[in-house]
Amino acid sequence: MSRILIVVFGLCLGTQALALTAKDRLANALRVSSTIEGEFSQNTQGMQNQSGSFKVKRPNRFIWQYAGKSGQRIISTGKRVWIEQPELEQAYHISLNKALGKSPALLLLNPGRISEEFELKDAGTSQGLEWVELLPKNQAGVEFENLYVGLSASTIKQIKLIDALNRTTIINFINLSFDVPLGDELFEYSPPAGFDSF
Fold this sequence. Notes:
By secondary structure, the chain is mainly beta. It has helices at 2-8, 22-29, 96-100, 106-109, 114-117; strands spanning 35-44, 50-57, 61-66, 73-77, 80-85, 90-95, 118-126, 129-136, 146-152, 155-162, 168-178, 196-197.
């Protein structure tokens, strides 16, 4: 779950002036949209490819829904993060603060803290994308070794995460929509009847 929390909150991006550097565009774009929804594909070395959809609403609310047999969902109500696992008929929760820790999730939920928590570094152009590296200013509690955001036309297209085991996770985003109406009720959650919850 921590890998999803690391990446999902870097998503609230819009269009910016082309004259800005990739670093400037990312910093500005994080302050643009209040909601975002779209689809993703996720590829982690040594693991099965996954895909699904997501919704994000400031402050502190999101849904990350996996497609396919597992149907797993991660839902933040604004105070708690629920992990629903239909195959196991269970759902469990942790506090939002504990779930986020020092992850880049703070960029979306508290974009004003970007300068406090991270240094943004232009990382060049490759595969048709402009890359920005996110460097935590405080390494305590950080669960990744390297984190890169790929931009095209000032819109996020890809996030690349390298963890402590040197495994690379690549998440591609498609069909993004910004500032779409998302009611708070979408992010309310109660475990389905018959599920174990804890």
